[in-house]
């Protein structure tokens, strides 16, 4: 089974990125044929600073390598190194109704918040579908809030097949990630958009300050507390082992526990898990040429698949192109 996923270089990566996606990616490299990419074209809907986008793209690659992604086991590449993706996006657009795109949650959410929406964001599902279909992906890891993305991709593939009378694409299926939504320091879903993140390799003092600022309720220290409604406990659930977590749950429900104590332990666990890798990350960051070589090698492998699928799609649509011999 071929697994595909991507992550946008639109900001510093954080715990939500790791527990929502990257952790599963690193585990999957031992189990499936994996294509993982840095979705820098998608980032253009929000990042309009060339130097910053280049740095963010490098940062994502470095973070993955630091956390254990093995480029010998997975196809790891940059989205923009596969130009066939954009060409396929246009072909899909010719067979996709506007109504489908207008129902996309990402588009509707931005409109509901009164934000300015560019065509890149409106067409985001088309580019994402192309990312998935061009590698004949079988499985796409997603959270429950992202299932619509896969359903839209399935619809676009079907519309293309019906329009041009030929089966070209593999129907992708969602691989549900059962990790609960990772809360940010304000209790909303952890997201760069909300400014509520805890960075993966942030400066120790600053990250501890952010952890100690996690919002909690006003239950007195002496009173029992519901761990299932606590943002701190939700993060402890991700970083603690099962025995320690059970102990924290008991103490929450018994009363006599201050949230500050739980936050201090969370800060310790964060340092144990991510702080220890800061030096490793710095070493990767000092080797940009090696990182570039890894991404280019991955792109060559990914592009070999993409070129064949695009060729099949162009042939189905009746598009004739000059060959290299001509």
Strand content: 5-15%
- Low-confidence segments, given as residue ranges, are none
The best one-word shape is globular
Total helices: the number is 15
Oligomer description: single chain
Query: Order of strands across the widest beta sheet?
Result: 1-2-3
Number of DSSP-assigned strands: 5
Assign a percent range to the helix content: 40-55%
Structural class: mainly alpha
**Whole-angstrom Rg:** 22 Å
For the termini, the CA-CA separation is 37 Å
Mean pLDDT: 94
Q: What about the largest sheet?
A: 3 strands, parallel
Q: Name the helix and strand elements from N-terminus to C-terminus, one letter apiece.
A: EHEHHEHHHHHEHEHHHHHH
List the helices and strands and how they pair.
Blueprint: E1 2-7, H1 15-28, E2 33-38, H2 40-43, H3 50-67, E3 74-78, H4 84-93, H5 98-102, H6 105-112, H7 119-122, H8 124-133, E4 139-142, H9 147-164, E5 173-176, H10 204-212, H11 231-239, H12 242-254, H13 259-273, H14 278-285, H15 288-317
Parallel strand pairs: 1-2, 2-3, 4-5
List keywords for this structure.
three-stranded parallel β-sheet; 8% strand; globular; two-stranded parallel sheet; mainly alpha; 326 residues
Report on the architecture of this protein.
This protein is mainly alpha-helical and 326 residues long. It has 15 helices and 5 strands. The protein has a 3-stranded parallel β-sheet with strand order 1-2-3. Strand 1 (2-7), helix 1 and strand 2 (33-38) form a beta-alpha-beta unit.
Task: Give a quick rundown of the structure.
Helix 1 links the parallel strand 1 (2-7) and strand 2. The chain is mainly alpha-helical and 326 residues long.
């Amino acid at each position: 089974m071929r697994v595909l996923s991507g992550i946008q270089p639109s900001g510093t990566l954080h715990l939500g990125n790791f527990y929502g996606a990257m952790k599963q990616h690193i585990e999957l490299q031992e189990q499936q044929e994996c294509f993982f990419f840095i979705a820098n074209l998608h980032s253009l809907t929000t990042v309009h600073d060339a130097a910053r986008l280049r740095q963010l793209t490098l940062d994502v690659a470095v973070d993955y390598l630091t956390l254990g992604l093995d480029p010998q086991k997975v196809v790891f590449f940059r989205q923009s190194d596969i130009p066939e993706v954009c060409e396929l996006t246009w072909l899909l657009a010719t067979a996709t109704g506007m109504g489908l795109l207008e129902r996309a949650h990402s588009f509707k959410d931005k409109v509901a918040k009164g934000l300015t929406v560019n065509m890149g964001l409106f067409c985001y599902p088309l580019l994402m579908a192309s990312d998935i279909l061009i590698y004949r992906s079988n499985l796409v890891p997603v959270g429950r809030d992202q299932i619509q993305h896969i359903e839209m991709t399935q619809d676009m593939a079907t519309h293309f097949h019906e329009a041009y009378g030929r089966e070209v694409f593999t129907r992708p299926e969602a691989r549900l990630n059962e990790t609960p939504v990772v809360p940010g320091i304000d209790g909303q879903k952890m997201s760069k958009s909300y400014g509520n993140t805890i960075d993966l390799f942030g400066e120790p003092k600053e990250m501890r300050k952010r952890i100690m600022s996690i919002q909690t309720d006003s239950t007195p220290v002496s009173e029992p507390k519901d761990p299932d409604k606590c943002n701190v406990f939700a993060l402890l659930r991700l970083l603690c082992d099962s025995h320690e977590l059970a102990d924290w749950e008991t103490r929450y429900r018994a009363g006599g526990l201050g949230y500050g104590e739980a936050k201090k332990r969370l800060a310790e666990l964060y340092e144990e898990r991510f702080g220890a890798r800061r030096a490793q990350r710095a070493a990767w960051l000092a080797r940009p040429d090696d990182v570039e070589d890894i991404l280019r090698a991955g792109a060559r492998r990914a592009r070999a698949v993409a070129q064949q699928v695009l060729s099949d799609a162009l042939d189905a649509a009746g598009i004739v192109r000059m060959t290299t011999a001509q």
